[in-house]
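Milestone 3.1: sequence recovery, worked example.
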């Protein structure tokens, strides 16, 4: 009980974030789309609120699932990606279309939940491991020193003088080890470690079966290896010992308990490209699984069902589902009514303006301009983008989008690539120089391409 609830509460930073904080975190990477950000922030916060309710009410409060609707390249997937990074909540992203593909026929949609739980398990394991890190490091260090001075630890000598000499030698070795002087020293290690917790659980799906087979493989492998001496470097020995000691210090049952709690209460499944499974069966041809069939498969999971995983049964009732799609051809109303009902919140994302493009180029912490800058810096070239140049690029992107297909912010990538093609190619010869990208530079390289419709179509 105390195992379960307390650490989970503490471990979540997302739990502590109010909607405005979530939005401002997203603002660092995604420009505009305020409505979508707000809606998602509220949905996430509502789960924290729900957790504070008394048991009897809490179980009645279901998450309000969301559909994000918007043209291509305006930030739907990017928002999901950022949520995943900022939250401690288990998160996975799936493409709805993968369940309709030929290769996946029979692959049950329950794999979403299995994967979600899988990500929670490794998340919790990492967290618990981090807590033990200092302790584990100290143990590993002793083991490495034992390897470096093999005779010493066996010598249970009662001779006080010898002990003192031994202790001094150990400290000397420790000091050198910490300085990294033994990293490439080879030592003999007997491979005694056990296979990682073998879980041949319910063989439910092909994936589970594969896992089970792999585990059996591991058992054989380590049975063969057991007791055998191997020569490895200290560096590698440290890695192996860290794994071993980490595992020894982690209570597997606790990992599973925490992960299950987190998956059920805070898990988020992002279903991308949901528009591609909307629409009637008529549109389906060939051996593809029917779209409506996929919707029907997804439905119980979204409504709340029990899914068996190798870690136990997961209740999906309170998992938050966020779906996204461009809905160019189909409409949300083309989804089967039951599924529509389980996604009560709809948010539309806006088309991006030239001004948005300018901000996308200049504001985000990972802005593409900064990426190019850093890349070229490795060759000793300093590229500086002036604001007017970025304005010009944005205008061009907007213009091409309105004339050709509108691919949103993705257009910026193709344009930047052409703009910097020459520079990227000859960067090695420009080492030590500062290249300033001005509006003239932009015009010179892009105007022809933009003017010539045929060229634009193929190049941009
Ligand atoms: N509003 C935005 N702010 C910052 N970057 C953006 C924005 N919109 C799109 N981008 C960038 O453009 C690229 C494409 O965006 P994203 O993958 O989110 O598109 P999408 O809306 O999911 O489109 P699709 O419907 O085609 O999947 C990403 O690299 C993303 O970083
Ligand atoms: Mg997308």
């Amino acid at each position: 009980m105390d195992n379960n609830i307390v650490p989970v509460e503490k471990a979540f930073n997302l739990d502590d974030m109010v909607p405005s904080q979530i939005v401002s975190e997203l603002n660092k990477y995604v420009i505009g789309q305020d409505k979508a950000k707000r809606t998602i922030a509220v949905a996430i916060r509502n789960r924290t609120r729900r957790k504070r309710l008394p048991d009897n009410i809490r179980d009645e409060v279901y998450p309000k699932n969301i559909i994000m609707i918007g043209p291509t390249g305006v930030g739907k997937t990017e928002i999901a990606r950022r949520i995943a990074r900022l939250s401690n909540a288990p998160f996975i992203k799936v493409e709805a279309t993968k369940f309709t593909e030929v290769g996946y026929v029979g692959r049950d949609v329950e794999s979403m939940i299995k994967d979600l739980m899988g990500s929670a398990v490794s998340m919790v394991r990492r967290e618990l491991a981090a807590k033990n890190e200092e302790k584990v490091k100290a143990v590993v260090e002793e083991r490495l020193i034992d390897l470096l001075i093999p005779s010493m630890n066996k010598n249970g000598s009662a001779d006080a003088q010898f002990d003192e000499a031994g202790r001094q030698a150990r400290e000397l070795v420790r000091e050198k080890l910490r300085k990294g002087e033994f990293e490439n020293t080879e030592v003999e290690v007997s491979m005694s470690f056990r296979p990682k917790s073998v879980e041949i659980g319910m063989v439910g799906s092909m994936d589970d079966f594969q896992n089970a087979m792999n585990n059996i493989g591991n058992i054989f492998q380590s049975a063969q290896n057991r007791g055998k001496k191997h020569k490895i470097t200290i560096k590698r020995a440290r890695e192996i010992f860290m794994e071993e000691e980490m595992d020894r210090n982690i209570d597997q049952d606790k990992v599973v308990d925490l992960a299950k709690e987190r998956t059920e209460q805070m898990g988020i499944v992002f279903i991308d490209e949901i528009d591609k499974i909307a629409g009637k069966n008529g549109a389906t041809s060939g051996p593809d699984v029917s779209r409506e069939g996929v919707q029907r498969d997804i439905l119980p999971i979204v409504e709340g069902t029990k899914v068996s995983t190798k870690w136990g049964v997961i209740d999906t009732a309170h998992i938050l589902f966020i779906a996204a799609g461009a809905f160019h051809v189909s409409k949300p109303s083309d989804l089967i009514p039951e599924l529509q009902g389980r996604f009560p919140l709809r948010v539309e994302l806006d088309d991006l303006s030239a001004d948005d493009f300018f901000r996308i180029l200049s504001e985000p912490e990972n802005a593409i301009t900064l990426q190019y800058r850093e890349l070229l810096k490795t060759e000793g070239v300093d590229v500086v983008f002036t604001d007017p140049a970025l304005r010009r690029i944005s205008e061009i992107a907007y213009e091409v989008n309105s004339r050709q297909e509108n691919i949103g912010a993705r257009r910026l990538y193709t344009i930047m690539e052409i703009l910097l093609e020459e520079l990227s190619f000859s960067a090695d010869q420009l080492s030590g120089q500062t290249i300033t990208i001005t509006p003239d530079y932009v015009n010179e390289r892009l105007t022809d391409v933009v003017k010539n419709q045929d060229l634009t179509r193929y190049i941009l």
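Residues 1-12, 194-206 have pLDDT under 50 and may be disordered. The radius of gyration is 28 Å.
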